[in-house]
Structure formats: C-alpha cells, structure tokens
Amino acid sequence: MSHQYDHGRRDRIGMPEAVLCSSKTPTQISAIANELAQVGNPALFTRLSDTLVGEVDASITSAWDHDSTSGTAVLNGSLPARAGRVAVVAAGTSDMLVAAEAARTLEFSGVSAELIVDVGVAGLWRLEQRLDEIKAADVVIAVAGMDAALVSVLGGLVGSPVIAAPTSVGYGVATGGTTALNSALASCAQGVTVVNIDNGFGAACAAIRMLSMADRFAGGQP
Amino acid sequence: MSHQYDHGRRDRIGMPEAVLCSSKTPTQISAIANELAQVGNPALFTRLSDTLVGEVDASITSAWDHDSTSGTAVLNGSLPARAGRVAVVAAGTSDMLVAAEAARTLEFSGVSAELIVDVGVAGLWRLEQRLDEIKAADVVIAVAGMDAALVSVLGGLVGSPVIAAPTSVGYGVATGGTTALNSALASCAQGVTVVNIDNGFGAACAAIRMLSMADRFAGGQP
Amino acid sequence: MSHQYDHGRRDRIGMPEAVLCSSKTPTQISAIANELAQVGNPALFTRLSDTLVGEVDASITSAWDHDSTSGTAVLNGSLPARAGRVAVVAAGTSDMLVAAEAARTLEFSGVSAELIVDVGVAGLWRLEQRLDEIKAADVVIAVAGMDAALVSVLGGLVGSPVIAAPTSVGYGVATGGTTALNSALASCAQGVTVVNIDNGFGAACAAIRMLSMADRFAGGQP
Amino acid sequence: MSHQYDHGRRDRIGMPEAVLCSSKTPTQISAIANELAQVGNPALFTRLSDTLVGEVDASITSAWDHDSTSGTAVLNGSLPARAGRVAVVAAGTSDMLVAAEAARTLEFSGVSAELIVDVGVAGLWRLEQRLDEIKAADVVIAVAGMDAALVSVLGGLVGSPVIAAPTSVGYGVATGGTTALNSALASCAQGVTVVNIDNGFGAACAAIRMLSMADRFAGGQP
Amino acid sequence: MSHQYDHGRRDRIGMPEAVLCSSKTPTQISAIANELAQVGNPALFTRLSDTLVGEVDASITSAWDHDSTSGTAVLNGSLPARAGRVAVVAAGTSDMLVAAEAARTLEFSGVSAELIVDVGVAGLWRLEQRLDEIKAADVVIAVAGMDAALVSVLGGLVGSPVIAAPTSVGYGVATGGTTALNSALASCAQGVTVVNIDNGFGAACAAIRMLSMADRFAGGQP
Amino acid sequence: MSHQYDHGRRDRIGMPEAVLCSSKTPTQISAIANELAQVGNPALFTRLSDTLVGEVDASITSAWDHDSTSGTAVLNGSLPARAGRVAVVAAGTSDMLVAAEAARTLEFSGVSAELIVDVGVAGLWRLEQRLDEIKAADVVIAVAGMDAALVSVLGGLVGSPVIAAPTSVGYGVATGGTTALNSALASCAQGVTVVNIDNGFGAACAAIRMLSMADRFAGGQP
Amino acid sequence: MSHQYDHGRRDRIGMPEAVLCSSKTPTQISAIANELAQVGNPALFTRLSDTLVGEVDASITSAWDHDSTSGTAVLNGSLPARAGRVAVVAAGTSDMLVAAEAARTLEFSGVSAELIVDVGVAGLWRLEQRLDEIKAADVVIAVAGMDAALVSVLGGLVGSPVIAAPTSVGYGVATGGTTALNSALASCAQGVTVVNIDNGFGAACAAIRMLSMADRFAGGQP
Amino acid sequence: MSHQYDHGRRDRIGMPEAVLCSSKTPTQISAIANELAQVGNPALFTRLSDTLVGEVDASITSAWDHDSTSGTAVLNGSLPARAGRVAVVAAGTSDMLVAAEAARTLEFSGVSAELIVDVGVAGLWRLEQRLDEIKAADVVIAVAGMDAALVSVLGGLVGSPVIAAPTSVGYGVATGGTTALNSALASCAQGVTVVNIDNGFGAACAAIRMLSMADRFAGGQP
C-alpha cells in the first residue's frame, strides 16, 4: 500500500505540507519521510517526541532537522520568507511545547514569529510590560492552560486577530485542557477564535491564512 | 409530618437560618415559613422567584420582606450589625442575581456589603478604576460567568481572601456555569477558593466564617 | 447602581458596542438601551427573541431597528462602510438564526456580508456550485450544526481564513452543539479556527479583527 | 474453572468465533487458545498487541497466524470464501490499525475486502479519484478519527450501506474518539450506521450480517 | 433567499426526500412545504409535533397526511412498493414515538414494516413468543431506551442485520438517551450497528440502504 | 503519625476489616499490615497487584495469604463460617478479577460463594443452562462490563436480591466502565441495586448486610 | 396494537405490577389503565404528576387512588400485608417526592414503611436523635440529593442493608443528581448499594427482594 | 529566553514564591531553580516526585530540602513564623500526599499546621474524638477523596472557615477526583469553600489569605 499525499495543498489553499506523528508508528513515520524525501518538497513533522525520533530510521534522522523543544522536524528546508509578524504569547514555562510548535511552524512557513513567555495574568504587570511588542504584531497567538485567563485579557487589550491555543497543562479540573479550551471559547472578549487543545501547529496555520488574505487584500486595494 | 429545624446552627457554627426554596413546592415553603414565623428567629429564604412568591400563602408574603433582584426574602428581621466589610464584585449585569443574593445574605447577617458591577476583564480599565475600593475590603467575593477571567485577575491583584462565585450566565460551552466553575478552580492565582455555581448565598456564608474567625483572632491576640 | 459601559472599546480594539440580551431581564435591557440611546453611539443588541422584545419598554422598541430572523436590534444607526467581503456559509435552514446574526453584525459594522445557505455536505454538488463565490470572499464563516462536516470540507477547498461557528441544531448526540463544536476543533483541515456554539456575533467580530489587520497590512506594505 | 464457549454461534447467527484479548491476561489468553486449538474450529483473536503475543504460551504463538498491522491472529485456518465485496475506506495512515482489523476479520470470514487509505476530506480530490472503486463495493466501512467528516461525505455520495468505524486517533477534543463517534452518529447523511470506537471487528461483522441477508434475499426472491 | 433542495438524492443514493422539522420555525416549514408541493415529488416531514402542525400554513396541513403517533407527515404520496420486510421491535410503550417514526419512514419508502412492541428483556418470555416473526424479517430495527438490553439479546438471537435505535426514554442516568446509546455501541453481540438517539428515521434509511444492496446483489448473482 | 483503625466496625455494623491498597504506597501498606498483624484480627487487603506485592515488606508477604486472580490477601485467617449462599455470576473471562474479588471477600467473611462465569447474554442459552443454580442462591452478584445486559436479564429471571457490580472491561464507549454502570442503574428490571465500578468487594459486603438481616429476621420471626 | 403485559412477574420474581408514566402520553396511560382495570390485578402507577392526572380519562381517575405527594396512583387495591419494616430516611423536605414514592411502593406491596425526614448531616444531632428508630428497621432506604453525605454517615452507623436513592435536588454541580449518585457509589461506607437517581420505586423494590429472601431464609433455617 | 518571575508577589498579595513542577521538564525545573537560587528568596517547589528529583541537576538537589511524602522542596529556607493555626484533616492514609503538601506549604510560609488523619465518616467516632483539636484551629483544611463526606460533616460541626481539598483517590466513579470535588461544592453545610482537586498547595494559600486578613482585622479594630 503506497501513500497518497496531498502535494497540491500549498498551491490550493496555501497550507504547508505536514505530518502529525503522535498517532503513527515509527515504521509508518519512516515510510512517509522516505517518500517525502524523494519528492523533495519542504515538509514539517509535528508531535515528534525524542523517544519517537529514537525509533525512526537513521537515514531519516540524519536528513531532517529535529528540534526537541517544539517536538518538530523540518525536511527539505523551509519555505521562502514572506511579510507579516506573529506574536506567540504564552502564560508560563509549562506552555512552552505548544508555543514552540506554533513558532516553528511559522518559521518553517517563512513567517516571522516572536515568542513571549511568562506573562500569565496572576502577575498582570508582566503582560503590561510586553504589551507594546504584542500590539505591534499583525496576529497574536495566545497560548495558555489552566483557566486560560490570558486569552480574555489579551482579547480586551489588542485589536489584532487573537488566536487562542489552549494547552493541556494543569491537574484536577485542568487535566487534558478542556477547562482552558472552554474558557477561551466562552471568552468575554469579542472576536477571539480558538483552535484544538495543544494545537500550536493549527494556530500557526490559522495565522498564515490571515496573512495570506491580508497579502491579497493589500494587492487588490487600489 | 412536622419539620425538624436546626435552630441551634447559628449558636453552633455561626451560620444564619436559611431556607433554599427552588426545589420546594409552594405548599412546603408556606408550611416552613409559618413554623418559622411562630418561632420568631430571623430567617432568610433564597431562590425565591416572583412566580414562586405568587403561589405562597398570603399570610407569609405579607410577613416577610421579599426582594426580586436577589430572589430572597427576610422573615423576622435581620441579625445585629457586626464588624467587617465585604466587596461583592460582579463582571456584568447578567451576574446581578447571584451578586445580589450574596449581598443580601451579608446584610441579613449584619455584615456591610459593597456591590461593584460591570468590571469584566474585557475592559480592564474599569476594574482598575475600582481597585482601591476592592482592596479596602476584608473579603472579596468575585461573581462571574462565562470564562470567569475576573477571578484570576482579582486573585493576582488583591491579597485578601477571594471567594469565587461562578455563575450560569452564558450560552454554548458556558451553559450551566461549568466553564466558569472550572476556570475558577484552575485559576492561576494562588489561594482563590470557590463555591458552587450561582451560590451567592454560600459565598456570603464563607465570608462570614472568615470574619468570625478574624473576630476571634483579634480577641485572642494580646 | 448605574452601568459602567466600555464606550472606548471601538477605539481601543475596533470592536462594536454590543449587548448580549439572553441572560438579562427586560428591565435590565430597557435600562441599558435607554442609557445607550442618550449616549448616541451605534449599538447592537443580540439574542433578542420576539418574546423578549415584547417585554421591553415601548420607547426602546420604537427607537431601535429589530430583526426577527437574526434576533438582533440596531440602535443609533450602523457604522460606516469599510472594505472587505465576508461569506457566511450555512449548512441548512436550521442554522439560519446563527448565520443571520453573523451577517447582521457584519452589516452593522459596515462590512459587506453574503449569506449562502443549504450547502450541507450530504449533497456535495450544492457546495461545489457556490464554490467560486465563496473563494472570492476575504473571510469565510462556516455555520453548521450536527456533525459540522461542512467546516472540514470548506477548510480543504478554500485558502482564506475559515471561522467555524458551530450551532446547537440537532438532537441526540448533537443536542446543544457540542458535537459540532468538537468536530470543528478536531477538523482535519489545517488552520480553521472556531468560536463558541451559536456565536454568530463572535464569528463576525473575528472577521472584523482580520479585515482591520489586513487594512493596516495593506497600508503598511509599499 | 473451565470456559463455556458459544461454539454454536456461527450456526445460530453466522458470526465468527472470536476472542477479544485486550482485557485478558496472557494466562487467560493461553488457556482459551489451547482449548480452541483442541476443538479445531477456525477462531480469530483481536486486540493482540506484539507485547501481549510475547507473553502468551509458545505453543500457541507457533500455532496461530499473527499479524502485527491489524493486531489479530487466526487459529485453525479461515472460513470458506463467500460472495460479496466490502470496501474499507480510511481517512489516513493513523487509522490503519482499525481498518486492518476490519479487513482481516472479513478475510478470515471468507469475504473479499479492499483497503483504501489516505482519502481524508481535507483533500477531497483524493476521495473523488477512488470513488468508482468505492461505489462498486456491496458494503462500505468508513474508518475515520478526529472529525470523521469522511463519514458524511461518503454517506452523501454512495448508496450502499455505510458503516462508520470511528477511531481514537487524534489529540485534544479528539482524544479517545468520542468526537469522531458523535460526529458519525450526528451525520447529515441519511442512513449511515455506526459501531463502537476502534471497533473494526464489529464493523466487519455488521457487513457480514448484511451480506448474509443479501444471500438469503437473492435466494428467496424468484 | 430561496432554498436549494437536493432533489437528485433519491436517484443518487436511494434515500427519500425528507425534512427534519424540530429545529425549524413554522414559517420555514411552511415555505419549504410550499416549494415541495409545487415540485410534486413525494416528501416526508419528521419531528412534526401536533403543536408545530398547528402553527403551519393551513394550505399545507390540508395537503399533507399527518400522523401524530409518529410525528410525521407525507406530502405528494408515498414511493412505490418494493421487496424486503423490516421488523421494528420496541421494548415498551414509551419507545413508540421512535418506533413509529421508523415504521412510517419505511412505509413511505415502499418497504413493508412490522411493529412489535412490549418485548423488553425484563420479561424475556415476551420476546421469545415473538422470536419467529422477528427472525423472518430481512432487517431488524431494535428500539430501546434506558439500558437498551434488548439490543444485545436480539443481536445474540438473530443473524440478520440488527440496527439499534436508542431512545431518550427514561430518567436519572437514562435522561437524554446516552446510556441506551452507549449500551448499544458496547453491545456484547457481534455486528450490531447503531444510529443516533431517537433517530427512527435514520434507522429506517439504513435498512433501505441494506435492502437496496440486497436487491442489486440478487440481481447480480447468476 | 500512627494510624487510627476502626477495629469496632465488625461489632458495630458487621463489616469485615479491610484495606484498599490501590492508592497507597508500598511503605504505607507495609506499615498498616504490620500494625494489623500485631492486633491479630482477621483482615482483608484488596486491589493488591502482583507488582505491589513485590514492593511490600517481606515480613508481610510471608504472613498473609495472597491470591493473584482476585488481587487480595488475607491476614490473620478468615472469619467463622455462617449461613447463606451467594452466586457470583460473571459475563466473561475479562470480568474475572472483579468476580474473584467478590468471591474471596465472601469466603473471607465465612459466606459460601459460587462463581459462575461465561454466561453473557450474547449466547443466552449459556445463562439458561445455569439458571437453576443461580435461582438457588440467597443473593446474586451480577458482574458485567461493556453493556452489562446480563444485569437486566438476571433481574428479570430471578426474585432474589440482585447486586450489579459493573466492570471497567471494554474499549471505546465502554472504557472505564461508565456505560456498564449506567446501564445497570437504568436497568429495566425492578429492584436491582448497584455498586461502584469494579467494586467486587463492596458487592460482597452488600450481600453480607443482606444475609445478616435475614439472620436477624429468621431469629425474630416466630 | 394491544399491550403485552408481564402479569406473571409477581409470581416469577415477586415484583409488583407497575407503570412508569413520565414518558407516556395521557392517551397511552389511559389505555393501559383501562386494560389493567379489566384484568383486576393490583397495579401501581408512578411519576404521575397532577398535570398528567388532569389529562387522563375521567373513568380512570375515579377508579384509582392518586396521591400527589408521591406522584403515584393505586388501581385495584394493595397487596396483602407481609413481614418486615423499612425505614425511608430523607435528608430534607426537597427529597420528599422520592421518599414518598418509596414509602408508597412499600405500602402498596404490603410492607410497613416509616418515613424519617430532615436528618441531613449538616446538623448531625438530628440524625443521632432518630438513630434507634433507624437501627430497628430491617432495611434502610437513604434518600438524599446534593452531596448525599447522609448515605455514608448512615452506612457507617447501621449494619442493615442500606439502599441509597440519590435525588436530583440541588443546583449547579448538583443539577440532575449525578453528584449525589456518584457520591453514593463512591461511599466510604462498606456495602451500601445504589439505585438510579430519583428512583424511589426501585429502592422499594430492592427492599422487597431482600425481605422476600429473608422470608425464605427464615423458612429454610431450622 | 530568560524567565520573568513575579518576585513582587509576596509583597503585593502575600503569596509565597512557588513553582509547580508536574508539567515542566527536568531541564526547565533546573533552569528555574538555578535562577531562584541566585536571587536568594525562599521558594517552594511542588508536585516534585522522586522520579523527577532524580532527573534534576545535582547542584539543585543538594541545595534544596526535598520531602517525599509531600512531593515538595524548599529552596533558600522558609519564611518567618507568624500567628495562626491551621488544622489539616484527612479522611485516610491515601489522602496523605495532598494533606502533606498543604501542611508543608503552611510550614514553609511560617504558619503552624496540625495534621489529623484517618477520620473518615464511615467510622464517625474517630472524628468525634479529635473534634476539640479541630475546633481549636483558626482555619480547617478538609482533605478527602471518594465521596468527600468528611467535608459536609466537618462543615456542620465547626464554625471556622472550612476549605475543602478534594483528592483524586479512589476508583470507578471516584477516578480523578471529580466526585469528591462536586460533592464538596454541593455540600449541604453552609459556607464551605473548595479548591481544585489535589490542590493542597492552594488550600494552604487560601488559609494564609484568611490569616493575613485576620491579622489586619486584629490590627485595625480598636
């Protein structure tokens, strides 16, 4: 059985070629990576833990560029640089995996990403110190677990698109991230949008969709 | 079958005599109120909608002091005034029923209550304008539905006890108040405590427990 | 107790002045509307059922422009027209209330909105017939209940930002809209974002955030 | 304690003899397999991970035919070939375990199964390329996790019985497969039926019931 | 905005033209019915309570054939009779609405349906008395709420396709039908399939898909 | 910190001295067992996996009588034999751990227990073969996972007290045992009672309460 | 379609003939009652609200004995008196409907029932005052909503069978009774059993099963 | 990326500097600990399992004071002693981890803590024996899993603030602690407050807020 990739996806809708590894076996990942290496298109592998990397074919691990902090690997290089800046704002150190996945997806896609961490609302002054940087970005990705209060506070202070990426960080009622997700969906700040729990990759893709639209918008407006 | 009231509760643990009406029939409420009217102790009736009041015995409705905004009625007068001030802080108009229930329970119990509404974090400047008032209170009750982000923001700004009373206000994932409840429980602010959804009465009782302890503490410290 | 409105919100983050009516009493809505009528800023009232309208002060109902299909009312006129076109795409007639709320919020905010209904994926040819119209929009709002399969299909065909507004339409496991919500969040299409169940207003606000960003982006690109 | 097998099941209702291994100890599996080996009837073992196989009696592992991809083993050979073709259609590589369990159950039961993978709706053209093959099958098993949008799209394009086998593939709200399950149950396509999450075996048994009925139907219709 | 019906659906996949009324307004139902009346194709309206019927245009209520027991109406006559018999087996009187919806959908589609009620497993002899009738059917629809034990018992006794239609009948943990649904999905009987809670219409459509396949199967077998 | 055992429990309410090990550390279990060994009263340890036993003090493992099948250990011997017979009826091999825990608790308490396995309702004839044995028991404990249909079938056939012990056996919607639990609670058979998921110990204790009552009843009836 | 009653149920398993009315239409209830009136066996109707009674055939309402407090009606008289006493212990007035349903079911079945109300554990002295009465009963039914702490306290003080009937009384997390149900199932007191939420009827039937067993036990012990 | 600590938190709101370790990597914990060691402020590390400690930099493990029972470590010494006594009351040995985390947080913060274990309500006499000690405390932390009945019993006997810390101890419906949490929130005792599941640290912080308030109260009352 050979795979049937959607290589036309970037042309069709501007989304990068990407492989979600967490529910695949090392054998499956190796097979996919080998096929993509032959095709030669830039590709991103996500949810790639160090353990999983250790079980993949050696030929692949020497070919791709793996980054432990974000659990991602890049094969066949990145995409060309493009206009637009995205701020990835994370409440705390524990949200780092998701924030880094978002930042690396953006960088792989040629978009400039700034990572701003440790600005949880329990110490509001920390967010206020970084607010000008955040306001200067075209799109804001808010990464937060537990109560995800950061999402509403950001949404009330910033007029740019705010994409909430709730994380599974926390224990008790926060376990698994449903509380952060629902809190972001029920946000009292208007016009905040949300992606799946821990979906840093998806938040980055959403930002890319917005920047591509802005590009067309800029081109089409006399 | 006659009722078996816990008239000693105030002496035993300092909690007011109170009747939760929402799951009782008008006949049951009338019977209880008549018995309490004869005993003569001050008593508070909660979750008493206008509709329910209209179905209770006329002798009772002329005897008690009913307030529609909080859905409460006071029978046989209030308890003596005592030291301590509580700030009841509500995110928006829709949280008014719960906030007013808390405030009326406090007033019935002789505690001074200040109601501060419309300070949701989507417009953070509104909360900042009232912050000095809130900081001056001995105990803060934070009333909020939807994402309940107000709870974490308050908990990070104020050192007093913060009691979160999540409300069932909202729709979609906010329906029924579970999102607000879980958000408050998972709050990134340290040492915030929580009561059941829509339980303004319970939040007030918790504040009374704290003020009573402080009274004893003040008395017992040389 | 007077209300404390966030009149600076539009200047601060570009969001329209809006009042969510579903969890407020007719008395509260009348009070708020009277205050806003005096201020004179354009304001939008949402979740305003015909029943609720019937219980509001007559002075208000003659002042605002109420629309039953979307359950909204506009007070003090709409905001000035601005660039950008949004396609509001709904799976079926039952999703009309949410789709119309999104469309009316956009129109109130000066944004051109096109409503495309009856394009559920059970009859895929219907969506294909309208695809060129949808692709021509700057932002797409996908309104769907039940399995919300429309979201993934649209996300795979269109490169613009796709905002999913899941609806509470359906019965059994679809009751309340959680299945549609989770389906949209777990979408196999990259970069789709999601708002709360039945939140047509929020989806429109998210689109406005994106168009405002594109405006700035267009201005800043030489 | 000896086991009490239901050896008459195939005669009674046409279902194959099968043992679900995932909640049994290696000792229990060995005991059952030894008893079945003596009886001599063809039997299928499902949910048999490589780890579990490593802990079972060596006499058994040399007797049965184990397949890692589907996590199944066949003891005492397969059942005789019979009429009818089933298409097992899977959204992606990650759904392979469940799809292969369905295909192997069919083959063990003498039914011809065709496995069609990587046809998720995010790239709809891939499904369209394979549609004629799928339409030619008597029964279609749709295997999909996450949003399971494949189920509705297939159900709208194909008139044959469509059996949805939702999978536990995914993270966040997709964890455990409930979103895929509910999405399939709430499908906007008419007459789709559903089996338990990850139940490839059950989907195959349902297809066998349908083919047996068709056999009788063919025989009984003049 | 005019509607965009999927009139080709019956030709494409053999499913009847049907309108789910429960989440539509009387105005929407009237508009759809008027358009369908002009087209002239047979159409089925489901989830049509007596209350809803009372609010629909009089021209429609005189044109269609409404049945209170099943909450359905037939417009423009039924479809031609076809081969195949379906047994609709219901645990108790309370499951009647769903069972009747299934039976009426079948009859509207030209399929012979037999309704067998009051055979819950708490009195197993009642089911055993009717077992020969049930075994004689081509397809069995099992309608049951609460614990839905009827599904597993039937699935173990009958070799035909068994489609479970769980109902929302019951209280406490049975409220809403999730227990019946999950019980049917987790059935210990092999190859049972399931439709959404209360979805008598969908169960009937699934049976029609199976009978159509059997028709083709019969035709294609020499 | 020394422990404060409830040694009077057997005299007070007739329940055996028992220690739930699954949420205790090996150190805690060793300390408790050493204290109980000195006291000398018969005691039962439950949820004692082989792994856990391997980490407990050797002095203890030589003192108690551990049984792997039920995950229990008996210290200081069993209680005296008493009248009454209990049938522990389990649907399948996978339910063995819970069934054996119930049987061993009964035997430790001096009550005669008969274990009847592999009588799931998917093959009803197996249950019918053992029905006379089951009817002869004073109390019936029904152990079943997945859909727990055995509970309702037994409850409809037997007049004795039927105690359902739902198990966590199964996958998908059956994961964790909630479906079996809810199915048992919603049973269509009258007067069935239920204990917590996997609580074989509690089911046995409930049977002991009933037999003790019957003892008193027998003594008190002239 | 005529009904197929299980008139042999009392002979077979000792359970009373009973009709659950809450999910039946007035027409269905009238039809069933008329048939049962002709048969002449004593029958109990449960969940029969005053509203529902008002819609049933007048011939029935004059024939049966309806009681509003318990929502039950008795047709054709009660069953003969038998040995055994059951204490129905309820936490508060709000639990009265369920407690009265249990008591009336017992009385209809010829069993003596004592109703003890207002003994919630928030005022533990009230329970202690009635403890001797409760201990004197053969079986105890504990009726409680909210946290259902009464169940564990009773289970620790009483050696008789304790059947928990959790109620749907309460708001917030207590809504619908799931918290009370789970609290009773997770009770720290050994050997407590549980019935479905609000199932006073089922709790009474369980008590009858136990008393019947005790009867046989008494007869069979020399 | 350097961390941005909230060192002013103790001055601002009186809360101790603390690091939640459970969702951080050993590398992240080491980095944070090294930075805090240089700053020199007393800091508490929580959720620090022995396994995690073994993976942290050796320089850190020699610098902090780690305690396995509570899973905490103290760096740079404790805070100065202050007035106030807190009773930490736990139902059983299994709740020890959470109870010890609360006690250690208090001791680190300079507050006297008394640990009282094995007072579950299944043996009520044990609690009654310790009641005078508990009543003498200024604040009571009630630590309990499963049904958390201890919370309501304590809340009814003690007038001081009662903070419930529900634990994840238990199995079946108790798994994860939601039943204990909801039971505490729905407590029939007035004015009990609740923190997140297993949040011994948060319960201690809440007690500190209350004692700080009492300190100010004592100072401010003439």
Average pLDDT rating of chain A: 93
Radius of gyration of chain A: 18 Å
**End-to-end Cα distance of chain A:** 51 Å
The number of distinct structural domains of chain A comes to 2
Q: Uncertain regions of chain A: pLDDT < 50 for 5+ in a row? A: none
CATH class of the largest domain in chain A: Alpha Beta
Number of DSSP E strands of chain A:
9
Instruction: Count helical runs of chain A.
Output: 10
Helix content of chain A: 40-55%
Give a description of the structure:
The structure is a homooctamer of 222-residue chains. Chain A is globular and about 50 Å long. Chain A is built from 10 helices and 9 strands. In chain A, the strands form 2 sheets. Chain A has a 5-stranded parallel sheet, sandwiched between helices. A 4-stranded mixed sheet of chain A has the order 1-2-4-3, sandwiched between helices. The longest helix of chain A is centred in the last third of the chain and has 21 residues, at 200-220. Chain A is of the alpha/beta class and 222 residues long. In chain A, helix 5 runs parallel beside helix 10 (200-220). Chain A is 41% helix and 17% strand. Chains in contact: A-B, A-C, A-D, A-H, B-C, B-G, B-H, C-D, C-E, D-E, D-F, E-F, E-G, F-G, F-H, G-H. Chains A and C meet through helix 8, strand 9 and helix 10 of A and helix 7, strand 9 and helix 9 of C.
